[in-house]
Amino acid sequence: MRGRPYRPEQLLGPLNLWEQKHAPSTLYAAGRTKLLWERRPRISIIGSRKASPEGLEAAHRAASRIAQAGGVVVSGLARGIDTAAHKGAIEARGDTIAVIGCGLDRSYPPENAGLQQLLMNEHLVVSQFPEGTPPIGGNFVQRNRTMVLLSHVSIIIEAGEQSGTMHQGWETHRLGRLLLLPRELLDARFEWPRELLKYGAVSYEGVAELLEILGQEFPLFETAFA
Known about the structure:
Layout: E1 4-6, H1 8-12, H2 17-22, E2 27-31, E3 42-46, H3 53-68, E4 72-75, H4 81-91, E5 95-100, H5 113-122, E6 124-127, H6 137-150, E7 153-156, H7 165-174, E8 178-182, H8 192-198, E9 202-204, H9 206-217, H10 219-222
Parallel strand pairs: 3-4, 3-7, 4-5, 5-6, 7-8, 8-9
Antiparallel strand pairs: 1-2, 2-6
Helix pairs in contact: 3-4, 3-9, 6-7
């Protein structure tokens, strides 16, 4: 399936000044673009490519519950947490959006080519990069900004000191959106999780508390997560 080009406003509606600052001029989308038009919570689930078994299970479980409750799971189609999140939503018969750091005709990582095609056919894949753009490092910082633009909330499951997840966390703060951090990340030897907490991020312990916070934030989830 070939992607179509859109102005961000065509998919997301009017953008405020903060959203416009780093918004791409064009978004390329393949799949069900109505997932961006519907009035449903879009929840990014993000984290380490080299995730622990516990992290993968948490991402899969959270995505499944969010999808079952009617939310849309957003992630980046990377190895680890991203893949677990997309699969959790799919296996729950829910909806998911991938925001990728290369052209829609490329797949990264290569082993997710089949998953990407499934998302293009049955869900939605979005990129700010034209076809032919390879998955080079700097693209993923821009991709993370765009993922925040598409999402109402970002949830970090696991992350390391140099993780690209950090950039998405700060962009979430810049746009004034809810960022959820696992409590154990606050005990890490590096500082950025504690800094984000000072600027309004909310910590959670375990998937049950994570869902409780989302239930308080969105009436749609209130009874589903009870």
